[in-house]
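Minutes, project check-in

Agenda point 3 was the complex the collaborators sent over. CS summarized: two entities, 692 residues total, and the question is how they sit relative to each other. Sequences were read into the notes so everyone works from the same version.
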Amino acid sequence: MNLSGCKRRILLAPLDPVHDVGLKIIRRGLDEAGHDTTLLPPDLAVHEIAERAVREPFDCIMLSRTIGYGAEELLAEFTKMMETAGLKGRVKIAVGGMGIRPELVEGLGFDRGFGPGTTVEEALAFVENRPARTERVRLHKTKPDLTAGYTYRFLNGRIARLLDDIAQDALRWAERRTTAAVERAQIRELAGVGVLTGNLRAEYAALCDPVIRDYYEKAIIPAAVRMVEEDEVAGLRRFCRTADGNAKGISLRHTRSKPAVLIQYGTGSLFLDASHMKVAEAWGADGVIHFDPAWGARTEGLLEGHVNYEGDGTVITAQNLRLLRSFLGEDTLFQVRAHRGLNTPETVVIAGQIGADLTKINIAYGSLGAGTDPERLAVDGIAALKYAAAYGLPYDIVTNEELCGVPAFKAFAGMLIVCRLGLLLGGRPILQPLFCHSPEAMITRKMEDNYIDFNAAKVQALRQIVDAPVWPGAPIGFMTHSEDRVQSAMTTSLHAALGASLEVDAVTIASSDEAYSRGPITAQARVDTLRAVKESFRFLGRGKVEPTAHAIDLAEELTAGIEAVLEQVREAGFVEALYRGMLGSPEDGAYPGRAGKGTVKHYVF
Amino acid sequence: MTGTHEPDAGEALTKVMDAVDLETFFICRSESEAKSLMLSLLAQMGFARGDVVFVQHEGPGARVRGRAYVHPAGDMPPYFGSEGGEH
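CS then shared the predicted structure for the full assembly.
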């Protein structure tokens, strides 16, 4: 029996030529609650519905109207007939549907108007003369472990042997070297997550570039940086708490459990970052990625405190990261990028200390596509891999050097070397192939027919080499986005559907502002893309986007290319190979970085 | 928002998270004309520093999206509020 404890007789009638799905759904709910319903067919005249209402003792009449044109006149005519028949006031009358504005029809004499999005519960509550049960049920998500279930077993014996030789050699090479970044990381380990004090502060300052040293020694704030006031931080906290209270939560996934969907943030402003993080969480993102400024990556040392930056990218400080982390729900993944600059090991230490879930490290990309000297980043990167293992932080190995023009087989060789290094050091790496229309694909016409085969081939090739998690990025669909938000969101969603079809573990998505470079990303652009991805997962369900047979050839080509590159790298050594262009050459578009050049210190035994 | 209070444009703008986007289709001859129309429209609505995010002209006119960022970069947006975060 229903909640009112009373069985009602209800007449349901569509005031449209064809559309009655909504009424049928409501009827099913009413029937299931034990009421007695009569559904009239579509395309009846108003007087025919009224005549039926007069003939039988209904308690309630529910009309629907999908078409907006002429709705007001028809509805006014109906209520007039009810009044003439003496039913007005004795029988409850409601109307709902896409063509209905509730506030308008209630003025026409209806007891209730239901707009688009009306739930069965709302209709049922109306019939049963009770308030609708509208308590917000917060969606409980589970934070995914992207590395769960993977053995990291190498399935291609030849490549496994090459990687072992290269990685073991690189570890021996690194044992004899250190850098200021490694030493700063050691200080951070000792100091914990708070501000540096006493001797540690002085030692740390001595290892920094002048612009950072001046902060620690003379309290001089670098240009374009502003310290955020305590009352502003308090405002941020209140804003995020209220947002949490209002969020019901959306899950992007439909019937699949993968992939997790992550977004990148990093406006430079803690205010906008916090706002966008709460928007992304509420609209279904499973995780967020902290995007730091290029300036920070090319400067020795990190600032401290709550810091805003007047440029792209949010400054890494222990306090910034801890604050932003505190705004996120327990089920949201938090990744801190550490992959490309002069503060790589220190960033991993801070990420571990403040409870981040993931970091990002790639020595090859940071050296060839992001401006850091290869020798320097090799020493720092290996130290960072050790810290990631020590703090239990999985990390993706992004191959965005493809965006410079490096062919995928070279980028993948670098990624697999870092993967093997990480495994030897006890870490949990995640492979991150670029999932987009890359320069290589444009030049060699690998994607002439579709955007599916080459991306699918990348995932297939990696899976034939090693049993490891795959997280395409970064972001998916890069270089296919335009400033048109519909095209951009659709491109992202199609790539997400391909990722889901390939059963990848996660994807990093762009906002629909990805191609707009004259201002910060907006919240509405984030919502566009998250909604589009949700829709693509709903469309796909357990179905699939299928690559053509060409993907198999492309995967074989990639594997052969990777193997050939690794042969060369084994002969030269990893770091030397980076300088010589074996993992991406100037002809490809990759240049060994210069930041930190000549700063590696050699231990004297 | 509660009761019958009707917010004015100024109050509404304090609630914008970062930017207002304005989308339409202009009957016009070219993309440059469409841009000019959009910037003019944004300016007349009080947005002095409007921008055109997207414009494509085909056939009778142009699909256009204009944008105006509302809060100065780096400042705490007013929706955080002096009482803090009521939204």
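Noted in discussion: Helices of chain B lie at 9-14, 31-44.
Follow-up: revisit at the next meeting once the mutant set is ready.
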